Structures are given as structure tokens and as C-alpha cells.
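Give me the fold.
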Amino acid sequence: MIPRHQTIMFIVLLVASAIMGSVLWHLRERAHQRLLNGQDLAHTQAPQVAPAEQATLMVASDADNSVLTRILSLPLPQNPESRARAVLGKLLDLYAAPDATHPVPGGASSIAQVFLVPIADAGGKMTPSGPELAVINLTGTFAANHPSGLETETLTVLSICATLHANLPRVTEVRFLVDGQRAIRWPDTRI
């Protein structure tokens, strides 16, 4: 015969195990759903502790189909790829604002990744201070919701390229990807 206090302890441990199992199952399902939805938990904004610096944004205007210079003070990280992402994120946030001169939905979250790749010179050598190719990976949602039309799309491409070159002068070419695939809608661009 099992003593009463051991029976009670066994039941308490059994109930605690069942509760912990259900909590773990729930957490596992949530993590699985985040993976399926493609949610990126990585830090995507420029850190707020970064010093504020002047950034040049080339903002498109649908009113006269122009690209105008706008200088803002932004917290910019030192890493060039993070800096490019932060500057482009701010540009797309301006386009997503209700009073935007070039309304494009999505904002900073439309940029999945930005890579800077050195370009070889005519002799096939890559130098640390040589020209760079910027590879911008946009989300499929951004591409699907971007207003169509030659002028609108051209203004968006021009403003992104000009903003990159204004803040990172070594960027001389830009390649657009959508969800990691070549963007047929937006061609590679030389600056």
C-alpha cells in the first residue's frame, strides 16, 4: 500500500507535468506559425543609441514627376548595409505616410534585406574602396501593393537609387529582388 502523502505528491507532479506539456505545445505552435508566416524577429531598425547624422533622401513627387532632395537627421548605424537599410526604411516610411507626395504602401518593413557587394574593376580586381552593387530584397507584399504605372514605378526606382548613392557614394549599381528572386518588374540600375 502506498502512503497517502506519496499519492498526493504523485498527483500534484502529474498535474504539473500535464500543464507544462500543454504550455510547451502552445509555445511550439506559436513559433511554428511565426516561421510559416515569415515573421522576422531580427532587429530591423537602426538602434536608437546610434548617433544622429544627416541623411540625404531623394523623395519622389507625383505632382510634377520629380525627385527632390530632403535632408533629415537620423540615427544611423556604422555598418554600411545597416545604414543603407535604415535610410531606405525612412524613405519608404515617408511614402507610406498619409500626406505622402508619392504614396506607396508598406513602409520600412517592405525591405527584407540590403546587401552591398564589391564590383570588380576592368582588370578583375576588387578594391576595398571600389564601387559596390547594392542588392535590395523587397517583400512580395510591397511589390504586389505598389501602384502600377511606368512613371510611378520609375520614380520609386530612381528615388531609391539616388538615396542610396547620396548616402553611400560607392554604390554605383542597384539590383532589386522580391522575396529573394530577381525582380522582373524593376530592372538592375546603374547610377
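The chain is about 40% helix and 25% strand.
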